[in-house]
Amino acid sequence: MIDIIFHDKTGVTPYNPGQTGGFENAAGSGEIHYYRLFDGVGIMLLRLEMETYTEIRTQIGMIEINFCINGRFETSFSMRDSVLLKPGDMAVSCYDGRHGTRSESRFPLGCYEGLCLEVDPAAAQNWLEKNAPGFSDFAVLKQNLLGNRWFMFGTAGPRCEHVFRELYENAPYMDLRFLRLKVVELLMLLSRIPQEEGTDLYCSTEQTELAHHLRDHLLTNREGYVSLAQLAEEHGISVSHLQKMFKQVYGVPVYHYIKEYRLEQAAVELVRSAKPITQIAQNAGYDNASKFSEAFRKRYGTTPSQYRTHANGLAKRSREIRME
């Protein structure tokens, strides 16, 4: 079950958020805090402990900008259209009434923390014209981010990631002036920062299912080493074809994906358990705690113990704010 909590201190006409009522079949629990900032714009803070849910979209023209803080987010609109987010990634979509009406989402790590900026362009444009003349319009933003597509995903980049994280950490304080400034800053960045050219991510149903199977096999096989050559032989394909297919589905080489995934699992364990760091290092495939710490610092910019302390401090602060 997902609990949705609304926060609105704007003092203007009540507004019905676009997607907060569209979550079904939640296999687990979680909270979504919706903060309304001005007409047509709100941010959702998602803190979920679940395996899957189904999302239903109904509002044509609604722009969703999702950013992954922690955990992993995988969603499929069809066998051809899918999104995979890890920390630092964003996904942007504009519902057109045909694509993405229903999506099936998975959380492989069993939890997810993220932010979703939800924008109704028609409702938001008037406020922005009066209060943020530097922002051009949503047609420019959509063209820069989406081109002729209805969704995109990829790395947010350091400038946008900084703003996303500021919004996530400061939303509970409901300082409207600060949050509005940050949203305008983010919209302007997204309108102007050059986006990477997308690649053709199409894979057949069989290829996608095989890539998922290989991924699951590699992640669950912690007892012994399995070579790509062995896996390729078992499935009757060449190693080069296996590598190409995996990268086409997941966007990165096989072992890069496995290493990143296990470090993200370790980050979750650091926050959600009291296990010793040495044990978490072993669970992530590191026999040496110092090597784990080095890899973790390279990935997250901080040591495992510092990461745990910072995350616990944020959680405590969030609980205190909710009690006020």
Give an overview of the whole structure.
This protein has 324 residues and is α+β, with helices and mostly antiparallel strands. Helix content is 44%, strand content 23%. It has eleven helices and twelve strands. It has helices spanning 121-131, 138-146, 158-170, 176-192, 205-220, 228-234, 239-250, 254-272, 277-283, 289-300, 304-323; strands at 2-8, 23-24, 28-38, 41-50, 52-56, 63-71, 73-76, 82-85, 89-94, 102-106, 112-119, 151-155. It has a seven-stranded mixed sheet. Strands 2-5-10-7-8 form a five-stranded antiparallel sheet, with no helix packed on it. Strand 3 (28-38) and strand 4 form a beta hairpin. Helix 2 packs across helix 4 and helix 3 (158-170) runs antiparallel to helix 4. The longest helix is centred in the last third of the chain and has 20 residues, at 304-323. Mean pLDDT is 82; it is low at 197-202.
In terms of topology, how is this protein built?
Blueprint: E1 2-8, E2 23-24, E3 28-38, E4 41-50, E5 52-56, E6 63-71, E7 73-76, E8 82-85, E9 89-94, E10 102-106, E11 112-119, H1 121-131, H2 138-146, E12 151-155, H3 158-170, H4 176-192, H5 205-220, H6 228-234, H7 239-250, H8 254-272, H9 277-283, H10 289-300, H11 304-323
Helix pairs in contact: 2-4, 3-4, 5-7, 6-7, 8-9
